[in-house]
Design a protein that fits this description.
- The protein is mainly α and 190 residues long.
- It has one domain: Serine Threonine Protein Phosphatase 5, Tetratricopeptide repeat.
- Helix 2 packs across helix 3, helix 3 runs antiparallel to helix 4 and helix 3 packs across helix 5.
- The chain starts with a helix and ends in a 5-residue tail after the last helix.
């Protein structure tokens, strides 16, 4: 049986306070390692079988990785990548806003409880994301250009402009507007 420690040991294999480039770049070998080890655990989490993990800071963090990060690795370019987003936002809302579990985590771990809000297409969640990430400003790894705070603002700007993430349109079967098509053609990234 997979435990939160298993998930966190894999994700934070270089230590709980060490940033890994592998988290945010496309790497088929990394994706395959996640698939081989954790695809059944992701499915169990989506079915609610691991809901009890949300009762501790490290358990909630492990759920964030299972429901928000791993699906993006396992299902790149498909709607399945975003299928657990709403569920994870509710877990994150409880963990961060009501229980303040984020304060028990390192500054490298905390963003994974904040990313469900950054990944949302709701403006209120984007505002919350920016506020949470701004709370990490004392850590220069997050405050630098291209750091976590910068990315939170970039996501918010896209939602403010389009009301959704245009790069998800194809995966979600949505038609892109001419403005979105132009933005995507110009690189449309974060």
């Amino acid at each position: 049986m997979t435990t939160p420690d298993d998930i966190l040991g894999f994700w934070f294999s270089e230590g709980p306070d060490t940033f890994r480039e592998a988290w945010f770049r496309k790497d088929p070998a990394f994706d395959e390692a996640i698939r081989a080890r954790y695809s059944d655990t992701v499915a169990a989490a989506r079915e609610g079988a691991l809901a009890g993990w949300a009762d501790s800071p490290l358990g909630a963090l492990a759920l964030a990785i299972l429901l928000d990060q791993f699906p993006r690795n396992l299902h790149r370019g498909s709607a399945e990548a975003f299928a657990a987003d709403a569920m994870m936002r509710e877990i994150a809302r409880e963990a961060v806003l009501r229980r303040r579990f984020d304060l028990a985590l390192t500054s490298i771990q905390r963003p994974f409880l904040y990313l469900p809000f950054e990944h949302s297409e709701a403006m209120a969640d984007q505002d919350l994301s920016v506020a949470l990430f701004e709370g990490l400003r004392d850590d220069p790894r997050h405050a630098r250009p291209g750091g976590a705070i910068d990315y939170a603002w970039r996501h918010r700007v896209v939602i403010q402009r389009f009301g959704r993430f245009p790069h998800r349109n194809a995966a979600l079967g949505r038609a892109s507007t001419p403005e979105e098509e132009a933005w995507l053609a110009a690189g449309g990234g974060f």
